[in-house]
């Protein structure tokens, strides 16, 4: 399970600091150099991952969860795909996975408007799988994980692999 500490789940990367270091040559741009990690492969090959979104989930805070197996949102959660507002574009294959989760039109409106979506609407739009009262979020996420974990691990991994192959292959 992945959750945030404090009031937010993850409010995104420090864009100014990261890009300034790349521009100044202090760090290498891993996408330009070809050394960027395979986020899709890493997450989809991992064991079950549940996002327990306890607050604001913005930018990479949103996009990292799209590949998780299950996304639970507290009633205090908020979601925003703010890249376009900052002069950027979606990341971590989110342009593909937003469409998978929300549908073409909803994903387009969400990514192009950069508007904040409250938890209940996120569930309605398919961006999150379940809405949970804030105080019950961690217990509910652990209960879901426990129910799933009762199944044979080899079959869990095989089903996850099949869902990944069939859910990420556009053909």
Written description of the protein model:
It is a single chain. The protein has 171 residues and is α/β, with parallel strands linked by helices. It has a single domain, classed as Alpha-Beta Complex (2-enoyl-CoA Hydratase, Chain A, domain 1). Helices cover 46% and strands 15% of the residues. It contains 9 helices and 8 strands. The protein has helices spanning 15-23, 30-33, 39-45, 60-63, 94-102, 104-113, 119-125, 137-149, 153-168; strands at 2-3, 8-10, 50-53, 56-58, 70-74, 78-80, 117-118, 130-132. The strands form 2 sheets. Strands 1-3-5-8 form a 4-stranded parallel beta sheet, with helices on both faces. A 4-stranded mixed beta sheet has the order 2-4-6-7.
For this structure, the CATH topology is: 2-enoyl-CoA Hydratase, Chain A, domain 1
Number of helices: 9
Top-tier CATH class:
Alpha Beta
- Proportion of residues in helical segments: 40-55%
List segments where confidence is low: pLDDT < 50 over at least 5 consecutive residues. Answer: none
Secondary-structure-derived class: alpha/beta
H-E string? EEHHHEEHEEHHEHEHH
Oligomer: single chain
* Strand residue percentage: 5-15%
The second-level CATH architecture is Alpha-Beta Complex
- What's the number of structural domains? 1
Q: Report how far the terminal alpha carbons are from each other.
A: 31 Å
Largest sheet: 4 strands, parallel
């Amino acid at each position: 399970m992945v959750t945030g500490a404090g009031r937010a789940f993850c409010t995104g990367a420090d864009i100014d600091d990261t890009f300034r270091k790349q521009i100044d040559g202090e760090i290498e741009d891993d996408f330009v150099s070809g050394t960027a990690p395979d986020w899709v492969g890493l997450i989809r090959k991992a064991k079950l991952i549940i996002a327990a979104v306890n607050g604001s989930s913005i930018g990479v805070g949103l996009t990292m969860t799209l590949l998780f197996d299950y996304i639970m949102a507290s009633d205090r959660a908020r979601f925003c795909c703010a890249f376009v507002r900052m002069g950027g574009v979606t990341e971590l294959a989110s342009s593909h996975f937003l469409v998978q989760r929300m549908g073409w039109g909803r994903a387009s409106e969400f990514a192009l408007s950069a508007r904040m979506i409250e938890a209940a609407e996120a569930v309605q739009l398919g961006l999150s799988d379940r809405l949970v009262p804030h105080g019950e979020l961690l217990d509910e996420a652990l209960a879901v994980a426990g129910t799933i974990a009762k199944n044979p691990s080899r079959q869990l991994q095989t089903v996850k692999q099949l869902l990944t192959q069939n859910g990420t292959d556009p053909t």
